[in-house]
């Protein structure tokens, strides 16, 4: 495993346990199994590491969602698959999910970065919704609001299960969220 990947995984564990403010670079180096000098070689500061973690986390989410929806042509199936993929990603990466959904909002600079990175994810959702609208599968609506609603609702449901340390039933939860979302947009 590459050292940067070890640092990524170690940082997730330390930040999830201690939070951004209380975690130290020493603890992250130890958890990652790398020398402190190696950590500072790759990341000059804790903020730089946090920034990397948020960016890599969002990129992994987008990658996993794209894998799940790329083989589908029906935009409604893509929406349902997107919801399920997002739930699965958050379930499989519970500590990362907590960091992204709680920690990214705890600092103005982090919040701006997270909001900027979310634009790519919103764009993915917006493309699907635009196609669904053009095909007459959903009614006209503010697509940007709909994409934010879809991400936010799915993320908050996942976070609730994570914080309560409950197992997720991805398919059932995705079906429920899809039906709720679709009920508001169906023609």
UniProtKB/TrEMBL annotation:
Taxonomic superkingdom: Bacteria
Gene3D superfamilies: Homeodomain-like, Tetracycline Repressor, domain 2
GO biological process: one example: negative regulation of DNA-templated transcription
Coiled coil, from the record: none
Key words, A-Z: DNA-binding, Transcription, Transcription regulation
Alphabetized GO MF terms: DNA binding
A Pfam family: TetR_N
DNA-binding region: 24-43
Secretion signal, residue range per the UniProt entry: none
UniProt-recorded name of the protein: Putative tetR/acrR family transcriptional regulator
Organism, as annotated: Heliorestis convoluta
